[in-house]
Design a protein that fits this description.
The chain has 5 helices and 8 strands. By secondary structure, it is α+β, with helices and mostly antiparallel strands. A hairpin with a 2-residue loop joins strand 4 and strand 5. The longest helix is centred in the last third of the chain and has 10 residues.
Length: 195
Amino acid sequence: MGKTYERIDGRLRTFIEEQPLFFTATAPLSADGTVNLSPKGLKGSFVILDELTLAYLDFAGSNAETIAHLRENGRITLMWCAFQGPPNIVRVHGRGEAVFRDDPRFKELLGHFPDIDPSLHGLRAIILVRAEHIRDSCGYAVPLMTYDEDRDLHGKRFAREDDESLSTYFAKKDYIATSLDGLPGVPLPLPPSSF
């Protein structure tokens, strides 16, 4: 049924790269803290950098739980499941970090995402994940569904923001600079974008 992998390559890499949707799960260290699970999409916003390193673009949203949890403890799980074709679920358990706009690595990492315009989506950070445990399972109970296309609403909403207005928008939200559990989230104001 399930298998553990030492690296992300071959058929496994192809499967991951073909999925239009994946999920991220994080949690704070506190036993009564809020577990977070987020869907991620938008074609071109996810890449596999090498056999154990993955990255995705963290865009504007109504909270920053993933960033807050990564800043506190680094634990993250990514999951893909097949909604078309043979049933399969792949999970990558690892350590992650948020690479913010003012990090010296940011510009080079952003170069790995040539197929998406980050200026349309209020890019806050790049999430970098180092895989520690890679496994799959059957996915027999996952329904068959079709992917039509990405929604264009996120880009339409955030394309009209510049760095200053985006920082103002984030400052008005309750859970951007600080998480639901009071952990540090996205540092504000945002450093100027170079994209």
